[in-house]
Structure formats: C-alpha cells, structure tokens
Request: fold
Amino acid sequence: MRAPAALVTANGRYTLDVDPSLIDYVAFRTTMANARALGDSGELRRACETAAAAVALWREHPLADLTTRPAEDWRTSFIQTDWIPANAFLLDKLIATEQSIAALHRLEDLDHDHPEELGFAKLRIKALNSTGRRGEIPAFYLRKYRAFRAEGDEQAADELRDFHEALRPPIPKSIHINAGNADRKPEQVEESVVPLRRLPRDIDRFVGREDILSNLDSLAIGATGEPLATIVCVTGPPGVGKTTTIGHWAHRAADRFANGAIMIDLHGFSRTPRLEATDVVDILLSAVFDFAVDRIVSPAGRMAKLTTLLSLRPALVVLDNVENFGHVQPLLDTLTSCTVILTSRRRLTPLTALHNVPSISLEPLSPAESCELLSHRMRERGQHEPEVLEALARLCDGIPLALSIVADRAATRGGLRLHTLADQLKDAETLLTIGDDGDGAGIHLQSAYSWSYNALEEAEQRMFRLLGLHPGTEMSPAALASAGAISVAAARRSLDALFSAHLIQHPGDLDRYRMHDILHRYAATLADRESDGDGPRRRLLSFYLHTAFNAHMTVYPHKPRPPMPPVEPGAMPLDFESPAAARQWCLNARTNLNALVEDSHVHGLHEYAWRIPHVTSDIYDRYGFYDDIVNGLTIAARSASATGDPVAEASTLNDLGQVHMLLGNDRTADRYLKMAYDLVLQQGDDFGRLTVLLNMARRHHHAGRKDEAITRYRDCLKLAHVVRDSGHLGTAEHRLGNALEVAGEHNTAVEHYRRALGHRRETGDTSGQMAVHTALAGVLTHLNRYDEATLHGNKALLLADEIHHLPATMKLYTVLASLAHAQLKDREALQYADHAVDLAERTHHATGQARALATLGRILAERGNSPDAREVLDRAAGLYRDRGRHVKAAELEQRIAELGKKVAGLPGTIPATRKGDEDTVAMLPPARRAGKKYTDR
Reply:
C-alpha cells in the first residue's frame, strides 16, 4: 500500500509526493463535480448533500501560512472560480429542495464575507420569497441596489433590479365586466386574463426613486402580494416627477391588480378645466365596467352604482394632479375598496392628518441621478464631458422637468456646445422659459410654476415674491416679516401655506425655511416684474443690518462700530439674551449676510453694503472666516467710496489692511493701510489716525523691524492718551509689550501687559483680556516664573472656553506648549503644539501657523527628534519668509542647520489627545484630521 506522502529528491530539489485523494482541494473539486452531475440528472437532494460535503472541506483559508504574492493570487482565484460557485450551487439546490431556511442561515456568513457578490443577493431574495418572508425583500433589495450603485457597479444594480421585478407572484386572473353582465351576481361573471390598463405611456428608462417605488409597494401591496384597499398620497413641488413616478410604478404593479388599473388627470393645476368628482365617477363606470352612464340620471345614483361595482371588483385608481382635499373628498367613500393613489402639489394635510392616510413626498433627484437622466435623454452627448454634465445638473437643481427640457434642447441642437448651453442657462429667464418653442402652450418651468403661484391667496403670493427678494435660499420668518412689514405670526401663516403647496421646505426643527434654487429664481423674476418699490428690500436690509449690529454689541460691547442708520419703518430687528445666542444667529445667517452685501451694492443701497461687513467681521474672525471678511470688506470699500463718506472708506480700508496682514498678504495690507492713512490725515481724524497707525506699527513688528515697531507703538500710546479711549489704550499697551518682548526687554513688557490688562478689564473686553493673559503666560515662561505663567494660562483657558475665538485659542495653545515643555511635561507640550498647528491651518492664519510650527519644531528638537524637527521648522521658516519676517526666518534656518549636524533619528507619532483621564489637558479641541504627527523620543 502506498504511503500517504514521501519526500523525493530529484535534480537537486525536494518534492513532496502526496496521494492526490488526500489533498482537500482535489477532493473538493472531485466532490463538486459529482454534485453537479447529480444535479444534472435530477437527483437534487443527493446533489445537495454532496455539495454540502464538498463545502465542509473548507476549514480555513487555503495555504493560510503562506503570505507570498503567488499564494495570495491563488487564494483569490480559488475563491472566485471554485468557492463562490460551489456555495451558489449548494444554496440553489437547498432552495429547490424546500430547505430555504438552511440556505438563509448559510447566506448570513457568506453575505458578511462577500457583500459584493450579486449571486448571493439574488439567492437571498429567492430564499426569502420561498419561505414566505416577502415583507423582508424590499428593504434587503433596496439596500443591495444602493450599495451596487454606490460602488459604481451599474450592471450588477440593473441585473438585481430585473431579478427583483421578475420575481413576482403569477398574474392573477382578472374580471372584465361589460354592460351585459354588470348587474349579474359575481359567480356569473366571465373570467378574462386581460385586465383593463389605462395608464400613460411608461418612459423607456426610469432613473432613481427606488426608495419611493419600494415604499409604494409596501403601502399598496400586502405581504402575500395581494393589493390593499388603501389610499396613498404622493406630493411634491411642480416638475419633480410625480406623474412620471406614479405612472412607472403603476405599470410595474399593474399585473397585481386583477380588475385593472386606471390613471386619471384631474387637471387641478392646468389650463384645462379640472375634473370634478362626478366626472371621475362617469369615467370609471364607462372605462372600467363598460357601463352606460346615461342609464342612471342622478349623479348620486351613479356614484352608488360605482361603489357597488368596485366593492365586487376593486381596481387600482390613480387620481393625478389633485388640487386640494376638497377636490377628492366626495370620492373617498366610493373608492374605499380600491387601491387609490393621489398625486398633488399640495400636501393634502386634512387627508393625512384627519384620515391617517400615508403620504410620500418626492424630492429632487440626487446629483448622480440628475447626471444619469441628462446623459440618457441627451443620447449620451455628455458622457465625455462629465464636468459640463454636472454643471447642467446643478443648474436644473435636480428637478426632472428641468432636466428633461434641457436634455431635449441639447439632443435636438447638435451644433450647440454644452458649455454654451450651460452659460445660457445661468440666466434665470432663459432657464425658466426654455422649452417654449411656440408649439402650442409650451412646456417650460415658468408655465409649471405659474399654476402653483396663481392658485395662492394674495397674501401668499406677496410672501412668495418676498422670498424672491431674499438673496439666499434659506430664510427666517422674522426676516420675511420685516421685509413685508407684517407680524411674525402672519409671516408664519403665509409660509405654512407655501409649505403646504410644496413651494418651500421646512428642514429640521430650525425656525427657518428653504427654497429650491430654481423656484427661488422664479420668485426673483416675479419680485422684479411686480414692483413693490424698494421698501421691502430696504426693510429686509434694515432687519439684517440692525440684528447683526445687536449681535456684535452683545458679543463685543466694548468695541464701537460705525453709526447705524435709523431702523426702517416696519422692520423688527432681533435682540439677544446672551453672547452665545448672538454668535449662533450670526453663524446661521452668514450666507445671507454675505449675499446681502453684494445685493445691496448692486441695487445702489450703499449705506447698507458698507456697514454690514463692519458689524459681522469680529464674529467671523472668531471662527476663521477670513474669506468672508475679505470679500465683504472689498465690496464695502467700493460702496463707502460711492457714498462719498471718507471716514467710512478709511475705516473699511484699514480693516481690509488688518485682515490681509493676518492672512500674510503683506503687500496688499500695506497698500490698504496707506490708502486709509491718507484719508484720515486729510480729514484730521485723530481717532482714525490712531487706529491706522496701530496697524502700521504692527506691520513693522511682523516684518521684524522691532526698533521701528517700538517707536511707532510709543507714538500710538501718546496719541491714545490724547484721544482718551480706553480700548485703544489697551491695544497700544498690549502691542508695545509684544514688541518689547521680541526685543528682549521682558520685564518692561510685563509692565505694559499688566497696564493693558487693566484697560481691557475697564472696557469689559473679554477677548482682549484673554490675549493679554496669553501674552503674560508667554513672557513669564521665558522669565522662568512658571507659577505666575500657569496662573495666567489657566485664566486664558477659562476665557477661551467662554468666547470661542479660534485664532486667540491657537496662540494660547502655542504658549501653553512652551510652558509645558519648560516644566518638562513633554506629552502635554506636544499635544498643545499639535492642536495649535491644527487651528492655524483651519483658520488660514499665516503668522499663527508659523508660530505654532516653530514651537512644535523646537520641542521636537530638544527631545532628540531631529528629522521631524527640521521638517517642521523648515515649514515655519518658509511661512515667516513669505510674510517678510526675515529675521524670524533666519533664526529658524540657523537652527535647522545646527540640527543637520546631528545624527538623524526616526520619525514617530504624536500621542493621542486624551485616553480617559490619563494626562488630562484642559480644553483640548476635537482631534485634527488625519495627517503626519510627531513624538518626542
């Protein structure tokens, strides 16, 4: 008898000679071949048992102890070509032999290991159907379908959809009732296999809405596949595709309705006179039952007859384009035995709220679905220009009607470049009227929207126009109430009516409403056409300006802002109970405030355009929204110039120079500061001159011209005593302390910092107090007075937690990193340094980023991590060099050169911010985004 295995030597190599029947892989393939042969011969149970024996040979990953590329490739090949097909064969035979429960148990593990396998998804649906658990199929199918689409596997998604649709119960026999048998007993009625179908033509390729279709299935079809006697409302804004979606679902589900399916357009929003309940009764009698309606003269009698017939032979009845609840209320009792789908632009609240009728709301298509629809309807024109396709989809705002009209324009005008079409559609009038080609009434968005607008009451029409006046697509009742000079309660009533008409949305729990972009553009055209004067726009601007001013004064009561114009009559600005509430309002309204600056400038309302940025910039600065500050102040400077107000212009130019200086745009900062100084000098404005001189001195400080900076700050301090302004005195003392500290005069700097702190407390400037405490913590650390430094650092941390000023917090973390490092608390030092770098990057604060990187590099270097220290210091030196701070850059470059002479170490990783209570560090921000971190060695 042959030994199981033998070690054979041949040609200088060793070979393990093994009986093939003892190798699991060979046994697996042999057993599976036997199983398939049994299956082909019809011996399904034996095939099932044999396949199960083959699969049982899998104990662990083949060649699990080999990690080479050839071994891995072999495993991958085995799984795809042998293992998955073997399991699919076994599952199929389990289902065929009525062992679907066992199949589902096996699928639990297989789905976990191979979630992307289409065959397993089909088999699970098949097994669920076989076990009668059909109610679980829609959710599983939808999840898998979306997963394939998300992975970009369109073929698998389409194949799964076709499989799902094909796996329906057999078509039941239907009943056709004609005039001759309409009055006969049910058992006397002839059976027919052809049910009535009076549905609009289905489109050739339906895109998206899988969740809607699945939801309709679950609401209208029972677990056994039989239709339910129910009513379902499907609502949505004009052009969102309600009719197309329901028509497609009705075609898909029609086979389940043995007695027919009919869809009737009630013309609730149309030039055609609307169909009333009596008209619907007559249509159903004649179309579904072939009943001569003139046999019964009384409308009530015909309705009673229809009720009786439908109770015997219920059908699917789709009532499309319902105007309101009253439009269909008389039909509810008559159709009680049917499956009824209602579509409307209104939410039909009485029906859903009082009668507990389920409602489905259609939203615009997703960007990916919009592109898919465009590409198909344009006959694949845009498939090689995805960026243009995406631009067209964005312009259409996901509205299927808009997408279809635009696609038709592109498909029928081959000479029109898609880029050109996209540019044309940026004009609101063009987008709204495209499709109006003179052939009859035309199919275009403006026509679709006008029916909803004309159906509104006068107060709601005016509110709709006010929405078009608002520059942003999200707005609050308070703002719109001011624009309309009405109460907030009246504004809410009108907004609720617009919400019910699907003309606006009410997202979340916020007291704000949102409008789709295309509808907003339509509302804007109405606002321009139906002139209400500039009163509404002025009141809207007055509301936002004065509310923003109130927010600023709540957060920064010590910081004066430009004088405000009187509140427009009818406008009702908001007040705030706390700084947190004021900041939150400003953040929520940020997009609208930014848009209003441009809007007021364009409409020549310059007194608002230049003021709004001045009352928002301090709060924006807290959160690092420097782009918003720069854009707003740039427009403000033009508007201030247009008003001929040199003080306003100088103030704006000064603030522009200051923010550009913070961003590291030093040449631009110098230009704006010079322009501002020339203006205040011409006006003899000492207060304005002091403000600009403080920023000019700061520029010298940043450029490393410390002696010039000290001289300028001393001049500013003298001028601050002349104007007798505590706020500027605090600023001058603080910045002079900064310059003296850089010059090495640390003890003198402490004296100025302490005086600055007194002025900050006098004015109640908590942000300024935090900055001075931070500065004191830094200079006292340098003087080795660690207890005092820690005291001021802790006070700064408490204030940081209160005011949430990101740039100030960034600087504080840098100082605390140096303090912790000086106290040999290396873990804490690295944490603070890393967070300082993170905040600097998030706020685009060039100087702060350089300072934080320099501190981090110094800590790394002193802990022996020279390679990472050099990398970090090189980044800091580059930032300083770009800022024109050449002295700082040279100091760092010298340090980098010294580190280069040392033996390089290996890079590491900064420790995690916190783990439980271990090494707790006060007020650490959320973990920074993934990227390189460092550690001490």
